[in-house]
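Data card: per-record layout.
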Amino acid sequence: MSSGIGFVLLTTFLASSVEAIEMVTIVVGVGATRGWRATLIGTVAGFLVLAVVVAVFGLALSAIPIGPLRLIVGALLLVFGLQWFRKGIARVAARGLAGMRAGEAEERAEWTGPGLDWTAFALAFKGVLLEGLEVAFIVVTFGAGANQLGAAVIGGVGAVVLVGGIGAAAHPLVSRIPRSLLQLVVGTLLTTFGTFWAVEGLGVVWPAGDAIILVLLVLYSATALAYIGIERSRAFGFSPRRLA
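The structure for this 244-residue chain is written out next.
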């Protein structure tokens, strides 16, 4: 019996850690780029809604179709991710990797208007809600299937708490990254997750499962580097036409 509990605990912990990493990456990235007030409010709201959903549906969670939610959240992340991806490429190309701390006025947080930044709120809220539901599905599936729901809950919650603590500890380091580069990094991550979730929401099964996220991340990073190289070549007056 103890070995069964240990297996369920470890399995749910590892599986939930993958979802928790995605959740924390979105929250930290959006908070560092757009500002923390709206991001944290969205995060808390996401957890509150998640708690209500889990309390109401309980073990019936596994019967809820998550595909439409993946599509909506993925499309939202993709829209904003591509915008930040484009802006990040333009700013890094203009300043390069050296001296990017120049121009403090341009390095302030993206949101400077009055009231709540609803973009940051929505991204954090939907990211937390979707990934939280994924963790809940993992817990219900493994826990109910092995008749070890308690161990599964401990594994899932433990993964979220641990990864969340690491994200909170890493926040000061993330805040030191120049916003030009940070916007590119966050834009790349949001575009990656948005592509992954939107395609899954359409019912397409990725050939390598969650591992395809790393492939998408590499592809988008390579694309960003290529465009930065092109833009910096133009800035220095280089034109491929002159080689003809």
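Known properties of this structure: Residues 98-107, 240-244 have pLDDT under 50 and may be disordered. Residues 2-233 form one domain.

See the next section for split statistics.
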